[in-house]
Amino acid sequence: MIHDRLLLPALRATMGDWTYYVASMTLEELAHRVTTATTLHQPESLDEEIQRSLSPRAGDIAEYLLSQPQRLFGTLVVGVYGGEPEWLEVEISEGARPWDDNDERLEGSIGLLRLSGSEQLFALDGQHRLLGTMQALKDDSSLGGEEVAVIFVGHSNDRAGLQRTRRLFSTLNRYAKPVSRREIIALDEDDAVAIVTRRLVKSHPLFLDRVSLGGTKAVPVGDLTSLTSIVALNDCVEMILKNHSTWKKRHKKIRPPDNILDQLAQHCVDYWNTVMGEHEVLREYVGMPKDGRPAEPFRGRHGGHLFFRPIGILAHTWAATTLFSEEAVDTQTSIQRLAEVPWQLAEAPWVGLLWDAENQRMITSPEAQRVAKRLIYHSVGGALSDLRTDEAELRKELAGMLNRAPEDVTLPRYSA
Q1: What spatial distance separates the first Cα and last Cα of the chain, rounded to whole Å?
Q2: Cα 152 from chain centroid (whole Å)
Q3: β-pair partners for 269
């Protein structure tokens, strides 16, 4: 397709054996002129594949553009194939320079990139942002005048050019380290779950200065202060918020209005206040000085309380919220029922399932966690049919974990 000529303000730079141009394009120009690599060049073999499969993430990006006033894209990388792109250097005369010394690095680096309109442009990095932009402009064309930064690199559609472009594409994606969950929880201002988690950590007595801020769900062995980890707490908060009447799936990606955020945060505060009210061990823990190793009596080689293990606090939250959503049991009643469950690791039914008494350590396999959650749910009146299983199957699973015959295993009932 032939387009009109286009003049873009740009910088020219070099890295390795690439010379590239950093320019500013409007969203309309981006959507109109740039395509995906697979559209430009359908691969005839795996050796010619130069781009990842495109996913439904484009729809999420379109929604982001349409709903987030503080939107900002990272720089896209665009391959230029064919045509006659031209670099026009802008020279700054000596009298116009705001500096005294002669900086040679500025020579040839500031100018205009002129596209003839006959070249083919394809998104080498940022194809989801490109497709999201296209979708968003269909709904709101006024976004077309907004600008994004684009890096242009040359591409040759022969074997050597494909190999060179593939290498650049894989390098860009290999070294683009994903943001860690801890960083999302700590920094995301759009994810309502992360925002509410931070509020709890800053203000609720159960979590204020009592949460491990490491990057994993586990609490470090040497941490004798924290109740749980910020990653585990974030997972709990997400389960709790999904039961609130104002919760929408989009609240994970698009910040809700402040009044909705306040309602969601208060819902979590009420939940944890109720949990504390039903569990003396938590009130005892909160009453201990933070610098006095308050978690030590409740977590260690002696076993301790399941709430002080991520597996336990997550299983409790899952059971409470599932009772609400599947059995229509209100939150307070759910938590009261769960308070009847024995939560000491060194007691039945956890020995052999979640607690290895001989080696004095947790059993953390996914199978053990799944059986434990089902056992808790059933023990407080939850219908196993909600979980697409039944008593016979659960007994068989539990027997396998305990290395017993199914007929020798009894499923406990603690309430309702």
Answers
A1: 69
A2: 30
A3: none
Tokens 């740009």 locate to: 10
Place of tokens 């799936």: 249
The string over 183-220, giving b where at least 16 C-beta atoms fall within 10 Å of a residue's C-beta and e elsewhere, is ebbeebebbbbbbbbbbbbeebebbeebbbeeeebbbe
Confirm if 229 and 314 have CB atoms less than 8 A apart. no
CA–CA gap between residue 352 and residue 409 (Å, rounded): 12
Kindly report, residue by residue over 196-243, the tens digit of the pLDDT: 999 999 999 999 999 999 888 999 989 999 999 999 999 999 999 999
pLDDT digits (tens, 9 = 90+) for 140-178: 999 999 999 999 987 666 667 666 666 666 666 566 666
Among 21, 43, 39, 14, which Cα is nearest to 159's? 43
**CA torsion 327→259→181→204, rounded to 10°?**
-80
How far apart are alpha carbons 267 and 13 in whole angstroms? Answer: 52
Q: Kindly give the residue spans of alpha helices, DSSP state H, lying in 279-390.
A: 280-286, 310-327, 331-338, 366-379
253: its two tokens: 């990606």
Residue 244 to residue 242: CA distance in whole angstroms: 6
| Rg of the chain, C-alpha, whole Å | 29
Cα separation, 2 vs 83, in Å, equals: 10
On whether the CB atoms of residues 122 and 34 are closer than 8 A, the answer is: yes
- Residue found under tokens 């295993």: 409
Peptide bond into 349 cis (omega under 30): yes
CA gap 263, 72 in Å, rounded:
28
Residue 87 to residue 109: CA distance in whole angstroms: 10
Q: What is the DSSP letter of 216?
A: S
pTM of the model as a whole:
0.74
The helix or strand, by DSSP H or E, that contains position 77, with its residue range, turns out to be: strand 76-81
Cα separation, 277 vs 141, whole angstroms: 53
Q: What pairs with residue 7 in β-bridges?
A: 114
Partners of 153 in the β-ladder: 79
Lookup: tokens for 88: 């026009």
For residue 165, what pLDDT is reported?
A: 64
Measured CA to CA, the distance from residue 293 to residue 295 in angstroms comes to 6
